[in-house]
Amino acid sequence: MSRLRSFSISVVNLLKEEIVRNLGALCGGLLLCLSLAVSADPIIIKFSHVVAAATPKGKASEFFAQRAAELTKNKVKVEVYPNSALYKDKEEMEALQIGAVQMLAPSLAKFGPLGVKEFEAFDFPYIFDDTADLHKITQGPIGASLLAKLEPKGIKGLAFWDNGFKSFSANTPIKSPADLKGKKMRIQSSKVLEEEIRSVGGLPQVMAFSEVYQALQTGVVDGTENPISNLYTQKMHEVQKHLTLTNHGYLGYAVIVNKKFWESLPVDVRGQLELAVKEATIYANKIAQEENDSALEGVRKSGKTVVYTPTNEEKMAFKKAMAPVHTKMADRVGSELLKSIYKETGFDPGKL
Ligand code: LMR
User: Fold this and answer.
1) Does residue 80 form part of some domain?
2) Cα–Cα distance for residue pair 12/350, rounded to 1 Å
3) Distance of alpha carbon 233 from its chain centroid, rounded?
4) For 122-188, where are the alpha helices, taking DSSP H only?
5) How far is the CA of 155 from the centre of ligand 1 (A)?
6) 207 to each of 12, 50, 216, how far by Cα in Å?
7) Which domain holds residue 212?
8) Ligand 1 pocket: which of 47, 49, 51 to mutate (most atoms <8 Å of CB)?
9) What is the CATH number of the domain that holds 202?
10) Per-residue pLDDT for the chain (352 aa), expressed as one digit of tens each?
11) Residue 279: inside a domain, yes or no?
């Protein structure tokens, strides 16, 4: 063998070895990268909602996101989209069902269009005296049976989160039901709320939450009802001259997930997320009243709205005007359900 040929052969062999070594390193590196990528890729939960970040729901969803990351050791990343940034009221329900988002916390007044009318039981005027009454339902067997009604819709209900009691606002003073006569009042998409507004002679206008500020500003509607935390964080008080602390009805949330997505989660991860929901529920229900109190303080300080606290007689007049809603709308949610709520809370519509 010529020296030149044996030199060429050894060069070729060296090159081969080099290529194999490099390929090995390359493949090893790639495999490592791939496995790192797989283990580092978190499960994404898109959590969409319509209110501001600085509200009971906004804060509770952020709290949930943080605890979900901690408890799952970052296997789950919850992305919170506040202020209708992704979807408005109706669209977010549809987005959940098709899996475009995984988690929501819509107000209980927004489940009627989905076909679960029973949730409108929460909208009956004065049905809860206070939060303790409300929790007998949301934290008890009636609440659990309501959440179970979502399953045939491809939705799993995980919890109820508080906001608070609603008050009426408008550009003219509201001291009696007659003051709402003929007023176009924005409400959420609930037939019980439509009847509530009719009971005081108002004209109910269903509208997405994201459109309310502008509708009030331009006079498309005259007034609205909401807990103060919603009113204040949307700056509605800047376009409403009068706010009366009627506390005539409740507004709170059901925390819901796409059922298929939820059931596809690894069992351990699902358990950790259930714990995160539990903790977030305690947190939400602890801060809700404080948030509404400080929002009221903010409204008062702004000097843009006259805040009126009705007398007992004035409160009674609202109660009496709205009492017929209980009989008129009983069939909407089922009179048995309504009676079981009355029994639990001790509420008697006949005494209004
Ligand atoms: C509303 O539409 O007034 C509320 O349901 C908004 C919310 O989510 O609190």
Assistant:
1) yes
2) 99
3) 15
4) 131-138, 141-148
5) 20
6) 77, 13, 11
7) 40-351
8) 51
9) 3.40.190.170
10) 444 444 444 444 544 555 445 544 444 444 433 443 445 699 999 999 999 999 999 999 999 999 999 999 999 999 999 999 999 999 999 999 999 999 999 999 999 999 999 999 999 999 999 999 999 999 999 999 999 999 999 999 999 999 999 999 999 999 999 999 999 999 999 999 999 999 999 999 999 999 999 999 999 999 999 999 999 999 999 999 999 999 999 999 999 999 999 999 999 999 999 999 999 999 999 999 999 999 999 999 999 999 999 999 999 999 999 999 999 999 999 999 999 999 999 998 887 7
11) yes
Cβ atoms of residues 186 and 224 within 8 Å: yes
For the CA of 105, the closest atom of ligand 1 is 8
Atom of ligand 1 nearest to the CA of 49: 8
| Two structure tokens written together for 93 | 């329900």
Amino acid at 282: I
What is the count of structural domains for the chain?
1
Q: Kindly give the distance from the C-alpha atom of residue 208 to the centroid of ligand 1, in angstroms, as a whole number.
A: 8
58 located within any domain: yes
**Overall pTM surpassing 0.90 (yes/no):** no
Atom of ligand 1 nearest to the CA of 208: 2
